Amino acid sequence: VNVYNEGKGWKIDPFNGATDAADVEGAELAGFKAQAILASSLMNYQSLENKIELTGEETVEGVKNFKIKMTNKDDGKTNTYFINGTNWGLTKMVSTRDIQGQETDVETLFSDPKDIQGLKFYMTRTQQVMGQVFQTLNFTNVELNVTLDPKIFDK
Description:
Distance between the termini: 11 Å
Number of strands: 10
Strand content: over 45%
Helix content: under 10%
Low-confidence stretches: none
C-alpha cells in the first residue's frame, strides 16, 4: 500500500516484512507524488512546471511516433512519451527508475483504449525492462468522480 496526500506519504510493505505504516521521504516521496497524478503528466505539464521538448520521431510497431521528453521540476527525472502520429494516442512511455540500486529504463506500452465520459483510458499497460515483460495491468472498469471517504488516506 502506497499513499500520497497533501505533501506527505506512507506505505505498508508486507513483501519486505513490514506490516505497519511507515513514513516515506525524499526520492521515494517524489515517486509517490508522481504516481498520485492519475492523468498523464503531459496534460498539465505547465501547471506542474515541468519542461517538455520534442526530441524527434521514431517508428513504433510500424507507426511513426513523435518523441516528447518531459523533465520533472521536482526531481529532474525524465520520461519520454511516444505519441502516435496517426491518431495522436499515447503509444509508450520510457522512464528511468532505480531498481535494486541500478538506474534502469522501464518501458510502459499502452493499449486497448476506451472512451469513458469523453476521456481516453488505456485499459492495458505492459511494463518491460530490456524487452522482458515484468508486469501487465489490465483494467476492467474505470469510474470517474467517485465519492471517497478522505480518512482512507490517513496513516
